[in-house]
Specification:
This protein is mostly helical. The protein is about 75% helix and about 0% strand.
Amino acid sequence: MPEFVNILPYLMLASLAILIFSGLPVAVLLAGLGVGFCLIGIALGEMQWIALLNVPLRIYGSINGSLIYPTVPMLLFMGIALEKSGIARDLLLCLQHSLGRVPAGMAIAVTFLGILLAPTAGVVGASVATLALIALPTMLDQGYRPALASGVVAAAGTLGLILPPAIMLFFLAGKLRVSIGHMFLATMWPAAILIALYLIYYMLAAWRSPPTPLNKGASQDWSDGWTPWQWLAFYIRGLVLPAGLIFLVLGSIIFAWATPPQSGAVGAAGGLLLMLLNGRLRWTLFREVVEATALMTAMVFFVVLAANVFSYPFRFFSGDEVVSGMLGGLALSDWGMLLTVISIIFILGFFIDWIEITIITLPLFLPVLADLDFAVHAGDNAGKALWMATLIALTLQTSFLTPPFGFALFFLKGAAPPEVKITDIYRGIIPIVGIQLLVIALVMLFPLLAQWLPAQVFH
């Protein structure tokens, strides 16, 4: 019997790996496996019935005192309010108008829109599909090749994963025990390099094959005859106020002017105020925003809570030691182990969202990552944790974009017009993935890219 108990962690991992492709909701699967293996442990006499009471206590303990749980719903509300009220579309039109004479101006505008809508990137598929519905038809009408337009939209739709105040960064900061302010700043330089390389590529692509609008002049019909005052009001409503709201939320967290929940509350109230100022605050739209926020929040938190249920019997049966032993048995160097863990996370990103990877998989690797010695390369433990968190964030973003399995691409195909083929999407995303891999390599070789800005701000 003790021998059978020793294989329970392996059975838990194997069951999860197999059943995750069954189509069952991930949260239901995690909670079901957690409770099921608790019952198996009780039947084998390894656990007591009273141990089941630890499950709700464990869930309560994960929620109590956490800054993540009250912050996430309010940031999601802000992003969804901007998107569903049409403010995001106004923002795109403002950027398009201001960049009209710049090569690849529309592609640059879509990229900036992805930056400013970072809080909506709580779920990769939702953010990519939303941006595709807003921007892809316009880009095609302006004569962008389907491949280039698809690459632009996919890249912009996933940028929000690594740009503050992205929801994923909250969870990564919690798991690797770094402050949220440090985590936000750590991704800024890598993201800036990534965006700069994107824009250079877009301008070169537009220079080599200039877009030819299908209906010249039609794109400006909506603004014909506007006075300077109308333009000024449009820019204030559509660009200055949304951008100011995002920077206010971000700055208040980074510079500790407010706690994350307080900053999230400011963001939610600001989103509501922008809807009012734009004359779009209607009861039906407000209810739609609240319902969408509740559904997305419930989905994220249900997975988080279910992961706590799963991890209880897994750790009870020494599952952490099993994973550490399996990786340790590979006898890899520190660099080899880091690359192995990053590669596993990259492959998992083909099939499941960042929520499951961050909450379920990453904790299994944390003891292994903590034992790696990068003191010379990345500094003390705090600097190493910040560097690794940035690498993981970039790896996940890249994984969601990588063909043929990157599932952000399938959401893009589902929201794209019929003339955009999956082969167009694959062709358009290959240069983007190349840029992503280059930036990951740069951060891996030069940890200061992730560490310098937090060190300057919090010295």
